[in-house]
Prior knowledge:
Blueprint: E1 6-16, E2 21-31, H1 37-49, E3 55-57, E4 69-72, E5 78-84, H2 89-98, E6 99-106, H3 111-122, E7 128-132, H4 135-142, E8 148-156, E9 159-164, E10 167-171, E11 174-177
Parallel strand pairs: 1-8, 5-6, 6-7
Antiparallel strand pairs: 1-2, 3-4, 4-5, 7-11, 8-9, 9-10
Helix pairs in contact: 1-4
Amino acid sequence: MAIKATVFKVALQIADMDRYYYADHALTLAQHPSETEERMMVRLLAFALYADEAMTFAQGITGEEEPDLWHKDLTGAILRWIVVGLPDERAIRKACGRSEQVVIVSYGRSADIWWNENRSKLIRLDNLTVLRLPTETTQALAKLVCRGMQLQCTIQEGSVMMTSDDGVVEIEPVIWHGKLPSAQSWQ
């Protein structure tokens, strides 16, 4: 019998002052049996950074042809394709051909090595953004995990503060390529 995903309910309040986006989201996160709490929380952070009413969690870790998150328009065209982790360079190029914008949210101790190996090929992709999250902050995010999370996410000048009853985590994403979304990029 296969191990089933663990389900988490998340009440996420977002105040993104960089994009003028203020919303409450009631989310259901499914943690794949092979996924760590750290990776799941990075997916949630990626959602907060690019939140939109049309943003959804996709197959990601279980689906070969899908990202972790995506934003599709009403015709089904992919506007934003978001991958968490250290994806293969060929898969990134393929995603860049399928979507208006591709975002990679990298984290972990191997992220610097991955970037150094792939940088020369990836910087040629105009519709690609690559972010690096510091390991200390992603590990601190994992400590906020509980089955019924109530989180507040404040984004201002590229800095993120994730708050819950269990603590506060301040995150400074490093932009390796591209840029974080701003109010101008959403108009």
